[in-house]
Amino acid sequence: MLREMSKDEAERTAKFYLCSDCWGHLIVSFKSIQLEDGSRETRHYVECSTPGCPCNGFVSKRFADMQEQKSRGELLEAKTALRQVGMIERKSEAEIMADLGF
Amino acid sequence: MEKTRKLSIAFPVVGTIRKGGAKRPGKDRNGNAIEIVGQDLQDKFRVVFAPGAEDLREAWMKVYGTDQPTRIRAMVCFPSVWQAWEYYNEAYTAGRMVARADNEKFIVLRNPLTGEYIVRAGEPFRAYTPGQKITYEKNGREFSLPMKSSGRLRVFIPELGRMVMLELKTTSFYDCQNITNQLAAIQAVAAALNGGNAAGVPFYLYRKEQSITWNKPDGSASRVSKWLIQIEADPAYVETMVKRMSDFALTGARTVGQLPAGELAGTEDPDQPEDDDEAPVDAPWEEPEPEPEPAPAGDLTPRDILAAAPHDEQGRIVRPMAPEVARAALAVKAETKHGKATDKQRRLVAMLIEQAFSDLPEPKKVRHSVQLYLTGAESANDIPDSMILAILDWLKPNQAESGEYLIDETAAKELRSIWPASSREAGQMELF
Fold first, then answer.
1. Do B200 and A53 make contact, defined as CB atoms within 8 angstroms?
2. Residues with Cβ within 8 Å of residue B85, at least 6 apart in sequence
3. Is CB count within 10 Å lower at the N or C end of chain B?
4. Distance in Å, alpha carbon of B53 to nearest chain A alpha carbon
């Protein structure tokens, strides 16, 4: 979805924010519009760089970075908790060694 | 579509479970084209997968056959349900969050005009009163932003076959109250049946029409019907776990009740527009009955304990025996055994005891605990020969047609009742 913004705002948004649907980079586009009085005006838009993404909103780059880090810890915790209740099979000694490259 | 960065993180949220239909085009009061909130789907949810998660959507459709299911079987995948549930009061302007508060204080507060932080990470303390609004002035006009409830529950759907989560979103105050209370009940189920680990406790998400008492600001009240989110532990799971627990305890008593929906009342307008929609208060459950403490053995000898145990008309000890009686009976029996136990017999004892706990996650650990209680030795290798022979007499293994050794049914019951006693004696917390 194209979002119309002022030039400064569009550039600031593309610099600090990502698409909320895919966390893809935002790009600034512009087009020249002819007004009713015959003069021309350049309008700026922000859109997601991922083809086909609906881009319903923005998230800050900092938020995405934090979620990425948090996610690693959460995965570890979830796997441990699910293993304890038998939802995920425990790895055998041989599998662990293989994972470690031995 | 290629896998996006959002889906490439270690444990991604791959989709959203919503209560309303998709946004549709409309017009504001000035006639400008805008998107307006879709209608509430009443008894249904709407599941929307993120771009790039098409394969997961396919897996979902294979299981549910629709993206608007009425009932979803899910679970949290963290030890505590509170790691999966986030509930705040939030205010937004132009898509930017300007305030976030729990029910007591602001966590984040920003100047709506400049974006400058006034409160960050709860500091400095600023009290929040439910219903409070964020007010500001712009170009001589006063604006007021309502603080709306915002709840996000991240759930794990095992049928998707991947370590990913879906996020259930609601902006209804009543849903948030409901979910908080019902998740507390799920945590209680986990505490009673699963050693406090809420991961893997299956529950159903569904919606039910419920009436809400709305206490209006002018002092009047009215009743409104709303389709609210409900969370209920999978009855089949609770039944199985309670049965297993009962088998161990030999009491047959149920220690965790089901979760009746309570009465809902509040000062929030249930009809206020929201992105999605709303849920019961108080889900009282029965307090688990404390297990009777075993009679203190004190300085009694095994023979004293056997003499005090209940006997039938023929003078035989009534079976199944209580754990301390079984231990005393084994000690007395062992006195009559003078042969040497072979390695094969030792291995057989270990295998037979583990067999009784084969449905538990760590049967070997349980066996060690039971052996310690019965014989004073944790490892089968350290159990005296006479005791190994006495245990084999007690368990009376029979070889089935398949070649597998099966223990006597009564002895199996006695063994299973020993485990809680052995844990208690070892000073451990009850596992169930």
1. no
2. B151, B152, B153, B154, B179, B180, B183
3. N
4. 10
